[in-house]
């Protein structure tokens, strides 16, 4: 896997500017109290004995052209949230609007049109590409579903343009996925994701399966595409260090809920939720002098089951700040402490804490 061929296209290797897409305050996608509970069925009668609360009341706005990073440990509901935003699944309750249009009430053609505007790139480039299809057919597949997007005669040329755009050789259009490295396969997945000129791209851990050396190249490619095409990203990762570079804002999830949401610099330099502080203190710091100085927080205990989340604040069972109120009263995601704008936190005892040197 480490035999990664360096991309020849300067677009793919060029160091991209720190910070990311132009932030425009126009809301493109809005999630309102999204809930997804999966029934747990047991026995021959398949009786429902409980529910996995995969996503449990998530609200946020995504602005045009921005990147919203969504971070949290495995199982906290990130992929489920991504599927709800794509409408690959319907929520148990709550709603999502795209440019003000309620996504879950759309049917038929109207829904198909909406689908064009929100696309997804999956985590694993090894399993998400059909091994029996050529790269040309994989990238061109969205045109079969949306035939009016590009006339049939122009499709091959469009696929070649897309290959070029993601830093791959357009002449490799007839090759199969196994003839590409992991990073190149993810470029194919990205080409497919942007084929229909979407407005929003959900990136579900797009670099988690790749070698560290290749991750930055793929993240850089996504940034360059954003700058060129004006896309908004929901960029999902389980690690805060991956999303820092690309995100304008970051949301931290714990057991199906957003526990902190704010501008990238606020989240990294002044996290206010104990969970965010703990996640950040686990981020590797290359500079050993900083590493020694910083405040390490080691979380004890396992993540509780999403089928039976703790009452009150879901994090209280692992939180060193927890008081009685945390066991009974669920903290809302609001500005804390008061006056810190655009930085919300769901903790009764939220206060900024410097974690990284
Ligand atoms: P993440 O992407 O953060 O790792 P997921 O969204 O994949 O988390 O999963 C959140 C929780 O929902 C997990 O406990 C998972 O087992 C459960 N889950 C996800 N999809 C389904 C499904 N289709 N049916 C039942 N449970 C599911
Ligand atoms: Mg996932």
Could you describe the 3D structure shown?
It is a single chain. This protein is α/β, with parallel strands linked by helices and 357 residues long. Helix content is 30%, strand content 22%. It is built from twelve helices and twelve strands. The strands form two sheets. The protein has an eight-stranded mixed beta sheet with strand order 6-7-8-3-9-10-12-11, sandwiched between helices. It has a four-stranded antiparallel beta sheet with strand order 2-1-4-5. Helix 4 crosses helix 5 and helix 6 (182-194) runs parallel beside helix 7. The longest helix is centred in the middle third of the chain and has 18 residues, at 212-229. It is globular. The model is unreliable at 1-24 (pLDDT under 50). Bound molecules: adenosine-5'-diphosphate (ADP) and magnesium ion (MG). Adenosine-5'-diphosphate binds at residues 38, 52, 54, 72, 74-80, 306.
Topology:
Layout: H1 10-13, E1 27-42, E2 47-63, E3 67-71, H2 78-86, E4 93-98, E5 101-102, H3 108-117, E6 118-121, H4 135-145, H5 155-165, H6 182-194, E7 200-204, H7 212-229, E8 232-237, H8 240-244, E9 249-254, E10 257-263, H9 264-269, H10 274-281, H11 288-293, H12 324-328, E11 334-335, E12 343-345
Parallel strand pairs: 3-8, 3-9, 6-7, 7-8
Antiparallel strand pairs: 1-2, 1-4, 4-5, 9-10, 10-12, 11-12
Short précis:
With 357 residues, the protein is an alpha/beta fold.
Task: Based on the model shown, name its key terms.
globular, eight-stranded mixed β-sheet, disordered N terminus, four-stranded antiparallel β-sheet, 357 residues, binds magnesium ion, binds adenosine-5'-diphosphate
């Amino acid at each position: 896997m480490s035999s990664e061929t360096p991309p020849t296209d300067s677009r793919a290797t060029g160091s991209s500017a720190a910070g990311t897409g132009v932030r425009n305050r126009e809301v493109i996608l809005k999630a309102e109290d999204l809930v997804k509970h999966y029934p747990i069925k047991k026995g021959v009668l398949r009786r429902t004995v409980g529910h996995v609360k995969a996503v449990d009341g998530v609200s946020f706005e995504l602005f045009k052209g921005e990147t919203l990073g969504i971070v949290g440990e495995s199982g906290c509901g990130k992929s489920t949230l991504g599927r709800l935003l794509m409408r690959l699944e319907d929520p148990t309750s709550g709603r999502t609007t795209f440019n003000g249009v309620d996504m879950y009430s759309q049917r038929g053609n109207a829904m198909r049109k909406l689908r064009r505007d929100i696309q997804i790139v999956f985590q694993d480039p090894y399993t998400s590409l059909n091994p029996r299809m050529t790269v040309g057919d994989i990238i061109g597949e969205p045109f079969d579903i949306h035939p009016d997007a590009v006339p049939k005669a122009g499709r091959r040329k469009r696929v070649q343009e897309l290959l070029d755009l993601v830093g791959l050789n357009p002449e490799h259009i007839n090759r199969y996925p196994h003839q590409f490295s992991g990073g190149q396969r993810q470029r194919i997945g990205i080409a497919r994701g942007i084929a229909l000129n979407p407005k929003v791209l959900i990136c579900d851990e797009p670099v988690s399966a790749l070698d560290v050396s290749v991750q930055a190249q793929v993240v850089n490619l996504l940034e360059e595409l954003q700058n060129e095409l004006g896309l908004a990203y929901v960029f999902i990762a389980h690690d805060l260090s991956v999303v820092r570079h690309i995100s304008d804002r970051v949301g931290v999830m714990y057991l199906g809920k957003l526990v902190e949401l704010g501008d990238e610099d606020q989240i990294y330099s002044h996290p206010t939720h104990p969970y965010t502080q703990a996640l950040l203190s686990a981020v590797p710091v290359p500079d050993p002098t900083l590493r020694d100085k910083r405040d390490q927080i080691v979380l004890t205990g396992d993540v509780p089951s999403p089928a039976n989340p703790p009452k009150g604040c879901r994090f209280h069972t692992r939180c060193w700040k927890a008081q009685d109120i945390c066991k009974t009263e669920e903290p809302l995601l609001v500005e804390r402490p008061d006056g810190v704008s655009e930085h919300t936190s769901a903790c009764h005892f939220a206060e900024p804490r410097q974690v990284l040197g």
